[in-house]
Amino acid sequence: MKIVALVKHVPDAAADRTFNEADHTTDRTNVDGILSELDEYAVEAALKIAESGDAEVVALTMGPDAALDAVKRALQMGADSGAHVADDALHGSDAVATSAVLAAAIQKIGDVDLILTGMASTDGGMSVVPAMLAERLGLAHVGFVGELNVEAGSVRARRDADVTETVEAALPAIVSVTDQINEPRYPSFKGIMAAKKKPVETWSLADLGVDAGTVGLAAAWTTVETVTKRPERTQGEIVTDEGDGGAKLVEFLAGQKFV
Questions:
Q1: What pLDDT, in 10s, does the model give residues 151-176?
Q2: Cα(221)–Cα(259) distance, rounded to whole angstroms?
Q3: Nearest of 60, 42, 32 to residue 120 by alpha carbon
Q4: How many CB atoms within 10 Å of residue 172?
Q5: pLDDT of 16 strictly over 80
Q6: What is the Cα–Cα distance from 221 to 134, expressed in whole angstroms?
Q7: Where in 107-186 does DSSP place strands (E)?
Q8: Which of 5, 57, 176, 178 could pair covalently with 130 via S-S, beta carbons 3.0-4.6 A apart?
Q9: What is each CA distance from 139 to 34, 83, 121, in whole angstroms?
């Protein structure tokens, strides 16, 4: 069984995230980056399946050179190999282009039984790429999964929303998981050292047969026109309650048009 875990290198939420002044795309150069936290759950789910049977886990990403760090993290956790789609033409790609490139990469990997993703990326938060991938690859998609079992050529998943649903789909399939599914492991020293010897392939758009004119900012369906930095937080107003605190609170809320 071959499992592909999609991983994304994103700006650290604890850092001062910003946009490039030239084209208003997310600045991924002048900020610390990490493996998207939500993707760690997908990697962990893949590793648990592999540990319970005979399965190979491939960590796949796309993006600039720094994006390889997301693959390395997955390898340190225990993935068997990695693949990185790197091409300058990818800069500014939207979800539509991202799904096309990842679909081509998955087809190049070949003989994939299961594709696992996080429920969203922590920098974009759109949650649409898994469904787009499923459409492009002609596979079943089961999203927002909190519990997953793989057996006898199928996946059986539970997802909790307003109601709890149990969904079953034949393999191959695409499953996006939530942060309720597991507790991602922290790479051990042994895992970190072993990751250095694991194979990682790097592909360009040409390697995947993807036309560079169909990706990137110029091909994006939407673009950011302007960016305004969030105002600095200011000190709030302190009101001394002299028996009229409730009235003053209502007055303040009314003045802000909250009531």
A1: 889 999 999 888 999 999 999 999 99
A2: 39
A3: 42
A4: 20
A5: no
A6: 20
A7: 114-118, 140-145, 147-151, 154-160, 164-170, 173-177
A8: 176
A9: 29, 21, 21
pTM over 0.70, yes/no: yes
Q: Greatest CA separation found in the chain?
A: 74
Which of the four pLDDT bands, split at 50, 70 and 90, describes residue 234?
confident
Residue located via tokens 């997955």: 74
Smallest Cα–Cα separation from 202: which of 75, 87, 122? 87
Burial bucket for residue 200 (CB in 10 Å: 0-12, 13-18, 19+) = middle
Which position has the token pair 């069984």? 1
First to last CA, the chain: 58
Question: How many residues does this entry show for the chain?
Answer: 259
Question: Among 43, 106, 116, which Cα is nearest to 80's?
Answer: 43
| Predicted confidence (pLDDT) at residue 74 exceeds the cutoff of 80 | yes
**Using CA atoms, how far apart are residues 204 and 85, in angstroms rounded to an integer?**
6
- CA-CA distance, 168 to 176, in Å (whole number)? 14
By the 10 Å C-beta count (0-12 exposed, 13-18 middle, 19+ buried), 164 is classed as exposed
Model confidence over 3-13: pLDDT tens digits?
999 999 998 87
Residue 95 contacts residue 124 (beta carbons within 8 Å) = yes
Query: In angstroms, rounded to a whole number, what is the distance separating the alpha carbons of residues 234 and 257?
Result: 19
Q: Is the CATH number 3.40.50.720 carried by domain 2-219?
A: no
**Range with lowest mean pLDDT among 5-9, 30-34, 155-159, 251-255:** 30-34
Give the per-residue pLDDT at 161: 84
Cis peptide before 172, with omega less than 30 degrees from 0? yes
